[in-house]
Design a protein that fits this description.
Helices cover 67% and strands 0% of the residues. The protein has 344 residues and is mainly alpha-helical.
Length: 344
């Protein structure tokens, strides 16, 4: 009896298999729901708009701010080709002057001094600041205790929330002529110093301020990349006899390489922006010869001296130069086998 029942069930399954051709989607059940292989209907843009309306409403404020403060001001880039005067003539009625603003900009020696200072500060920060978050992330990743790692990480990125006014005040109280270190040296019979007003060390001083303020915040990105590394790779390397240093070299650093390449491309593209507020607050202490950078030059020319056309021309040059640097750096990243900002 049992054998006859099993045979009947097998025959019924064979008939069902023969009744459903291969590659055809399963029919809908009696409740009307589509089968697992049935394509959903109404996949047009209006259906997707209604489906994702909650997400679209969430990003609408950010998109509005992006349009208002990024794309709408692009209309004022025409000021670079006009004799613009916002008090007597508007944007549309100002007379065209062609490339005269660019000619005046290139003939100004202060522009080239600011350009050279900007590139030198960028190079120093790439060499001295960029590797610091990577090294800190590797050190924190080697800490076994989660409590110790969390405490150290919180202490490291706490200065990120300080304003530049507070950061410069702290450095002034430590390294200034009346600072703590100078007073201690004088109290012990030595000559004091004032690094806050020394033009020779200004580029290294602002790099030290940047490291203290933002290095801990950059650690978060690299720790997130390290958390995605498969732990089996470390175990396999340890079984093969790799010590801690070789595991870091062959497992950890290759996992960080895509993130490092991406951040490096973005940093190179942003090379003409080296901290406007930070440098403007210290410009008078060391003089414009050592501290003038591209953004502060545009500020003094465009806002303080009301030469809006020359300032707009400088802004266009900055944007074009940054775009070229991004394309070059991204091409280098592709040649090294990394994705960069976008794929090929």
């Amino acid at each position: 009896m049992a054998k006859r029942a099993r045979g009947a069930l097998a025959d019924r399954g064979a008939l069902a298999d023969r009744g459903t051709p291969a590659g055809r989607a399963a029919p809908a059940d009696r409740s009307g729901a589509p089968g697992p292989g049935t394509p959903t209907a109404r996949t047009g843009w209006w259906h997707r708009l209604r489906r994702d309306r909650t997400l679209l409403l969430m990003v609408a404020p950010a998109v509005g701010l992006l349009l208002l403060f990024t794309y709408v001001p692009l209309l004022w880039t025409t000021v670079a080709f006009k004799d613009y005067d916002p008090f007597t003539q508007g944007l549309w009625t100002s007379p065209w002057v062609g490339l005269d603003n660019f000619t005046l900009l290139f003939e100004d020696s202060r522009f080239w001094d600011a350009f050279a200072n900007t590139l030198s500060i960028t190079f120093i920060q790439l060499v001295l600041f960029f590797p610091v978050p990577i090294a800190l992330a590797l050190l924190l990743n080697s800490v076994l205790s989660d409590k110790v790692r969390g405490l150290v990480q919180s202490i490291l990125y706490l200065p990120h929330f300080f304003s530049w006014v507070l950061v410069i005040t702290i450095f002034q109280q430590m390294l200034g002529g009346a600072g703590l270190l100078a007073q201690q040296l004088r109290a012990h019979g030595h000559e004091g110093f004032d690094l806050m007003t020394d033009p020779g060390v200004f580029k290294f001083l602002i790099t030290a301020q940047l490291v203290w303020k933002d290095a801990g915040w950059g650690v978060i990105v690299f720790l997130a990349a390290l958390s995605a590394v498969n732990q089996d790779l470390y175990e396999a390397a340890a079984v093969d006899g790799a010590n801690r240093r070789r595991r870091m070299w062959h497992v950890t650093l290759p996992a960080l390489r895509p993130v490092v390449a991406l951040l490096l491309v973005l940093r190179v593209g942003d090379s003409l922006t080296v901290g406007f507020e930070q440098i403007l607050l210290q410009r008078d202490a060391v003089g414009p010869g050592a501290s003038e950078v591209f953004d502060t030059y545009v500020w003094w020319v465009g806002i303080a001296n009301t030469d809006y056309g020359i300032a707009a021309a400088g802004g266009l040059i900055k944007g074009a130069f940054s775009l070229v640097l991004v394309l070059i750096a991204n091409k280098v990243a592709h040649m090294l086998g990394e994705q960069g900002v976008y794929r090929k």
